[in-house]
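C-alpha cells as discussed.
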C-alpha cells in the first residue's frame, strides 16, 4: 500500500499520493506532502500536461519558473483520464496509494468512474482529498470556482486595498494556496484517524471556506454590532502605531509598536518619552483613535534618518521594525541565508534554480527539496512498470493509442 520509508527521507515517506487535477490548489497540497517525503505520483494529460508547465509571469528560455516549484519532489506520469483505459490505469494506481488528491469540478470524478465509493472498493483505507471552489455540497457546488472568486466570496477581496478604491488583490494566488494548506491539514488529520481506526475518509476543502477561515472576527463583529470591516490600506483600524514610514534616503520602514510597552520604547528612541504617558496616546484604545496624528509624529521622526541606521536603532531598542522586502532583498539577507530559507536545486534546462525551501522546519524529520518539477511523463516506465507490472511493449501500445 505505502511507499517504503528510508532514513532521512522525511516524516511522510511511508505515504504514497496520487495527484490528479491541475493548476494550483490540488497540486500545492501535493507539493506540501511531497516536501515532507511523501511519494507523489502526478497524473497529467498526455502531450500537454498540467497548464502550470506554461504558467508564470516570467519564463527563462521558454521554460516556466513556477512549474519547477509547484511540481517539485513529484513523479510525472501521463494518463488520459477521459479514456476508459486511462481511468482503469488510474484506479489501479490509486488501489496502491494512501491518498488521492483531485481538484476537478464536483461530479467529474464520478463520471469517470473514479468517485470515492468506487475507489474505496479496492482500497478501504483510502483518503480522498477534494479541493474545489465551493465544496462538494451546497447549491454552488457545480459551479466553476477559481481562486479569485473564492477570495471575493470569502471576504478577503472586500477588505483588501485603499479606502475609496476598488477591492484589490494580493500579488499571489492566496485563495488557492489557502485551500491547499487547509487540505493538507485535513489530510494529516485523516491519516492520524486512519492510523487509529483503519478507516479512510474524504477531505473536502473549499477555496471560499479557506479564505473565510482567515477572516478573524469579521462575522461576529457584523452580527453583534453591525460593524462591517472596510478597506483600510496599509493599516488595521484602531491598531497604532503600525504602519510604513518614510526615511531620509527614500526607503520605507515598517514599525509595529502598538503594544503599550513597545510604544514606550519607541517614544524613548524618538526622545519623546512624554508621549507614552500622554492621555491621548497612553493606551491601545487612545492610540487607535488618534492613528493619523500619531503616524504623522512618527513619520516626521523617521524622515530625519536613513533607513539602515534607523532600523539598527529600532532593533537595539526592542521595537519590531523592518524594510518591505523584494526578492532581491531576500537573496541578500543574512538571516535568510543562515536559516537556509532559499534552496538551490539542479534543473536540466535552467541550471541551478533557487526557490523557497521547505517550511516549517522539523528537528528530527525535516523535509527537503529532492528535485525540481519533472519533465512530462518522465516517470511513466518506472511507475507503471514497478507498480502495475507493465513492460515496454505494453507501455508503447498505451502511448500509441493516446492513453499515456
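Sequence:
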Amino acid at each position: 500500500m505505502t511507499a517504503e520509508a528510508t532514513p532521512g527521507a522525511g516524516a511522510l515517506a511511508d505515504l504514497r499520493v496520487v495527484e490528479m487535477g491541475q493548476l494550483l490548489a490540488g497540486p500545492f497540497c501535493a507539493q506540501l506532502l511531497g516536501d515532507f517525503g511523501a511519494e507523489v505520483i502526478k497524473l497529467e494529460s498526455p502531450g500537454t500536461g498540467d497548464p502550470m508547465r506554461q504558467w508564470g509571469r516570467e519564463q527563462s528560455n521558454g521554460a516556466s519558473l513556477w512549474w519547477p516549484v509547484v511540481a517539485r519532489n513529484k513523479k510525472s506520469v501521463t494518463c488520459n483520464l477521459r479514456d476508459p483505459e486511462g481511468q482503469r490505469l488510474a484506479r489501479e494506481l490509486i488501489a496502491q496509494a494512501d491518498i488521492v488528491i483531485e481538484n476537478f469540478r464536483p461530479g467529474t470524478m464520478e463520471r469517470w468512474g473514479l468517485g470515492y465509493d468506487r475507489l474505496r472498493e479496492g482500497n478501504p483505507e483510502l483518503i480522498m482529498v477534494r479541493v474545489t471552489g465551493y465544496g462538494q455540497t451546497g447549491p454552488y457546488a457545480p459551479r466553476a470556482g477559481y481562486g479569485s472568486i473564492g477570495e471575493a466570496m470569502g471576504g478577503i477581496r472586500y477588505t483588501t486595498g485603499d479606502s475609496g478604491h476598488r477591492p484589490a488583490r494580493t500579488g499571489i494566488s492566496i485563495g488557492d494556496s489557502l485551500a491547499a494548506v487547509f487540505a493538507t491539514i485535513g489530510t494529516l488529520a485523516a491519516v492520524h484517524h486512519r492510523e487509529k481506526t483503519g478507516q479512510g475518509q474524504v477531505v473536502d476543502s473549499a477555496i471560499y471556506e479557506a479564505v473565510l477561515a482567515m477572516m478573524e472576527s469579521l462575522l461576529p463583529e457584523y452580527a453583534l454590532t453591525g460593524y462591517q470591516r472596510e478597506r483600510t490600506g496599509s493599516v488595521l483600524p484602531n491598531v497604532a502605531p503600525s504602519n510604513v514610514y518614510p526615511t531620509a534616503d527614500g526607503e520605507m520602514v515598517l514599525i509595529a509598536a502598538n503594544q503599550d510597552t513597545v510604544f514606550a520604547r519607541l517614544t524613548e528612541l524618538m526622545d519623546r518619552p512624554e508621549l507614552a504617558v500622554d492621555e491621548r496616546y497612553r493606551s491601545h484604545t487612545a492610540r487607535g483613535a488618534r492613528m493619523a496624528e500619531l503616524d504623522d509624529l512618527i513619520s516626521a521622526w523617521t524622515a530625519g534618518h536613513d533607513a539602515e541606521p534607523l532600523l539598527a536603532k529600532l532593533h537595539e531598542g526592542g521595537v519590531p521594525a523592518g524594510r518591505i522586502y523584494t526578492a532581491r532583498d531576500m537573496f541578500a539577507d543574512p538571516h535568510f541565508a543562515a536559516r537556509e530559507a532559499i534552496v538551490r536545486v539542479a534543473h536540466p534546462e535552467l541550471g541551478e534554480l533557487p526557490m523557497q525551501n521547505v517550511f516549517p522546519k522539523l528537528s528530527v524529520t525535516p523535509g527537503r527539496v529532492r528535485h525540481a518539477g519533472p519533465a512530462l511523463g518522465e516517470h511513466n516506465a518506472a511507475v507503471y512498470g514497478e507498480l502495475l507490472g507493465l513492460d515496454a511493449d505494453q507501455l508503447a501500445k498505451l502511448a500509441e493509442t493516446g492513453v499515456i
